[in-house]
Amino acid sequence: MSVSLQDQVVLVVGASSGIGRASAKLLAREGARVMASARRNERLEELRAALSAEGHPIAIHAADAGVLSEMEQLAQATVAELGPIDILVYATGTNTPDRAMKRLRPPIWDELIAVNLNGAYYITQAVLPAMRAAGHGLLVYVSSVSGHTPDVSGAAYQASKRGMLGLAHAIRVEEKENGIRTCVVCPGLVDTEILDKRPVKPDSATLAKALRPEDVAEAIVAAAKLPPRAVITEMTIVPTYL
Ligand SMILES: NC(=O)c1ccc[n+]([C@@H]2O[C@H](COP(=O)([O-])OP(=O)(O)OC[C@H]3O[C@@H](n4cnc5c(N)ncnc54)[C@H](OP(=O)(O)O)[C@@H]3O)[C@@H](O)[C@H]2O)c1
Question: Which CATH superfamily is domain 9-237 in?
């Protein structure tokens, strides 16, 4: 039998658009107490207003995932406003049109690694002590099929996404004795704003067949609803046509 998410405290990082936004919405509709974070506060305000109108109030907190102190403050603010964190969803990510090695430069590499990988580590490090004390916790990381299958998404992006698989699996092995589970999600093409950062955006026929952010959010919620004795350690979700 699935576990209720009612009143579980969920921190969603990367909640201003795409997969993170869809996850925050679905989790709030499941009755979770959601903290939604990203940099664009106006987007977070819009999300909060939309969910509030549905009868699902959430908390918001603007923060840059690539900055350690901001992730630490985010974890503290979540506990202060909502209570101890039961579930973390790290859906933050970026890419660059300058992804090919002929165009990639060190500042771009640094930004991708900071946002896609370092931030996941920063927020995890900040939430883990309380999860250990509670004896439970679920850490969900949104990686990509690019994390396990070579493609043209760029060296920095693929390095960050492969790194995220290592992060998730290493933490699970270390923390399972504390009741902490990790789940790394590897989506294929999803129709979200990150596609605007491709050198060439997929055409409308391809986008029509792509996943929608809500599809990935459904998979995340399904993982979160498993009883504590079970964990989906890694899942790949791709459009059916592939
Ligand atoms: N779309 C796809 O085809 C696809 C496929 C596989 C994996 N993914 C992965 O899915 C995850 C979510 O991406 P998406 O597709 O939903 O794209 P998206 O709509 O562009 O969402 C990206 C989210 O990350 C946040 N973000 C970016 N830089 C940030 C920073 N420095 N600090 C805090 N938040 C930051 C954005 O918020 P702000 O800009 O407001 O900060 C936004 O909420 C990413 O990790 C992406 O790599 C996407």
Answer: NAD(P)-binding Rossmann-like Domain (3.40.50.720)
